[in-house]
Amino acid sequence: MTAHERAAFERLLKIARSDTGQSRKVANFILAWWNADSLGGFDLAELFGVDEEIAADMATVFVCLSRNAMAFYPTAYRAEIEAIIEAWRPEVWAHSQQP
Predict the structure, then answer these.
(1) Long-range contacts of the stretch 64-69 (C-beta < 8 A, 24+)
(2) CB-based burial label for 41 (10 Å; 0-12, 13-18, 19+)
């Protein structure tokens, strides 16, 4: 990730950790990247429900992902993403915490 892409992703993480309609859409975007199979996908129509700046940050991250031949995940942000999972997918989080 470039510094510009990292900044866009960090702004998205901050939004996803709050509790608004836009936050849910941003969380859906991030969680679809992290693990769409268990955390749900991202409906592109959700872009219509976010501010232009947020959509631009999503586009920046999307372009970043498209440049890579292999999948990569933001593991340096694992704690932040786990907090988003706990907040927006509590049933998945609870299941993952069982022994």
Answers:
(1) 64/1, 64/2, 64/5, 64/9, 65/33
(2) exposed
Task: Dig out the tokens for 41 from the structure.
Answer: 């996908």
The pair of structure tokens assigned to 46 is 């959700």
pLDDT digits 0-9 by tens, 62-95: 999 999 888 888 889 999 999 999 999 988 777 7
pLDDT digits (tens, 9 = 90+) for 17-73: 998 889 999 999 999 998 888 898 899 999 999 999 999 999 999 999 999 888 888
CA distance 1 to 82: 20
80 CB contacts (<8 Å, ≥6 apart)? 13, 17
Q: Token pair for residue 36?
A: 């769409």
Closest C-alpha to 8, from 63, 81, 69: 63
Q: Is residue 39 within 8 Å of 92, Cβ to Cβ?
A: yes
